[in-house]
Amino acid sequence: LGTGAQRAGLLPRIAGGELTAALAVPGRALSRALGLDQPDGRDAADWAGGGRAGGVQARIRDGGWRLYGQVEQVLDGHSARLLLVAARAGGYTRGRTLVFAVTADAAGLVRTRLTALDETRPQARIELRDVPAELLGEDGADVAGALAGLGGPAAAVLAAEAVGAADAALTRTVDHVRTREQFGRPIGSFQAVKHRLADVYVAIQAARSAAYYAAWAADGPEAPVAGPLALAAALEAQRAAAGEAVQLHGGIGITWEHDAHLYLKRAASDELLFGPAHRLRARAADRDGVFAPAAAAAVTV
């Protein structure tokens, strides 16, 4: 969305680690804004807020843009040096969604770190009180379409992360059942335990394959379908691996401070933020026309 000057000024610093940035989407609707669980063509106000829906309002005052409103659950919002805030401008008659760049030291900006289930993926509340902001790109750009276009690549990245977490949880669990003894033998030698871990292994390998394909397709026309499908498989594998890790670690596994809960918390928070899996699959099916009338007729025949 940015102009040439904005890209030249921001992207090298972000890529180099000199500048951290966070996307602030009103209405706790990050997955909808990225097009992961909402059909194309809906009004951007459905997730961006504005008017009666709340969210963030943008107005021109004294020759510059000003933002008003509040955003919940902004990932890394308490520490990012640059906030990209989606806001509604123009009221009811000329309502449109725009994205603005807000610096961390902007006057009127209040950031509060929230208590989150997964402390390794921190969230914050962003309050904007007559905050000066710079419009990203040009007024009238297709912001909703641009953000939705990021959904496929973003889902591919998240799928890879979830597969890695699931694999780590499984590895730790296998190491534990090899050494933990019960009834005079390692619990990993019991057939029931082997079957449970084998099921998790199969789920992880299937999710890994889907994540590889989504990464390969990330810059192509298949990305909007491949990304959400890979993320759905990865979220399910991550949930299964984390659940088995807690159970098969026994008494220590149900201790909140145990490392197994790092993976359990990540699995739960990922589904809340980006899932659930069935909505990701429904979104991909809608994009691919699986349930279109023609497809339904072909299946019937």
Structure description:
The chain is α+β, with helices and mostly antiparallel strands. It folds into two domains: 4-141, Butyryl-CoA Dehydrogenase, subunit A, domain 2 (Beta Barrel), CATH 2.40.110.10; 150-291, Butyryl-CoA Dehydrogenase, subunit A, domain 3. It is 48% helix and 20% strand. It contains ten helices and nine strands. The chain has helices at 4-15, 30-33, 45-48, 143-149, 151-179, 191-216, 223-248, 260-274, 277-288, 293-300; strands spanning 21-24, 56-61, 64-75, 82-89, 96-103, 109-113, 123-135, 181-182, 185-186. It has a five-stranded mixed beta barrel. Strands 8-9 form a two-stranded antiparallel sheet. It is elongated. The termini are far apart. Residues 40-45 have low confidence and may be disordered.
Question: How does the SSE layout of this entry go?
Answer:
Elements: H1 4-15, E1 21-24, H2 30-33, H3 45-48, E2 56-61, E3 64-75, E4 82-89, E5 96-103, E6 109-113, E7 123-135, H4 143-149, H5 151-179, E8 181-182, E9 185-186, H6 191-216, H7 223-248, H8 260-274, H9 277-288, H10 293-300
Parallel strand pairs: 1-4, 2-4
Antiparallel strand pairs: 2-3, 3-7, 4-5, 5-7, 6-7, 8-9
Helix pairs in contact: 5-6, 5-7, 5-8, 6-7, 7-8, 7-9
